[in-house]
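Notes for week 9. Today we move from apo structures to complexes. The key idea is that a small molecule is not decoration. When we ask for a structure prediction with nicotinamide-adenine-dinucleotide present, the ligand SMILES becomes part of the input, just like the chain. The input block below holds both the sequence and the ligand string. Read it once before you look at the output, and try to guess where the molecule might sit.
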Amino acid sequence: MSYPGSNKKLVLITGAANGIGLATARKLASTKHDLFILDKDEEPLAKAVAGLTALGARTQSLVLDLSDSENIMPSLDKALGEAKVDKLVNNAGVGFARNVENTSFAEWDLTLDVNLKASFIMCKYFVPKMIAAGGGEIVNVASAASIVGLKNRVAYCASKAGVAGMTRAICADHAAEGIRINAIAPGTVDSTWIEKILADAPDPVATRKMMEARQLDGRMGTPEEVANGIAFLLGPEGRFINGSLFVMDSGLTAI
Ligand SMILES: NC(=O)c1ccc[n+]([C@@H]2O[C@H](COP(=O)([O-])OP(=O)(O)OC[C@H]3O[C@@H](n4cnc5c(N)ncnc54)[C@H](O)[C@@H]3O)[C@@H](O)[C@H]2O)c1
């Protein structure tokens, strides 16, 4: 498995140019993994590759817009060549601050295409290959929004609830064939995502305070904390966990 000639496990991470995806790539680089990272944004992706390579991880990358559903499998075929992916992290995601009345069809489609359909296509592509190779591990990045309704996030909540359901169904179908697939449900995490939300907010200080207060320890999580959870689920210490929605939200969904 892995890159030809390498004895390390190869992990593919989507949306790895920033935030939780990049922190996960760094964490896995530090635990002797090779990496294949993809993102729609070329410049931060190239920067991520340089940083990961400097950490000693053999890293290849692909600029790919996951909303272009038809293009995902052909692009993977071309970019991966002989490389064999052992572990997959479906992390890329988008969200719009909209309710049912003001969500456009285009926003609904984009949210569902990137957050849910692309994760389905990635699983459809890799699960049979992993089974043929004797098994594999997958983590789908879901959200607290998989569990509770968040205000003004109708398409996002629908997409992330779908990710949790799809994860359980793939586990039910393929656990016996060596597939270990879990979803992780972070609370609010201080990533580039949140930076953008705060930049657009009429009162960024009040919005930040509100977002911090949702977690019961009164702060946002860090991308590194979520990366630790993903690495745990992917690794040998998580081997008894399958089909779960692993909640990491400092109590956001507990009350
Ligand atoms: N930040 C949070 O509070 C939070 C909470 C729960 C779940 N999540 C989930 O975590 C995941 C990562 O979020 P983050 O906070 O690190 O966000 P981020 O915006 O910092 O990173 C997301 C990455 O996904 C990439 N991406 C977006 N659309 C893409 C597309 N069409 N094709 C390819 N790449 C694309 C972006 O370019 C970016 O690099 C998302 O699935 C998000 O829903 C985030």
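The chain has two domains: 9-186+222-248, 188-220.
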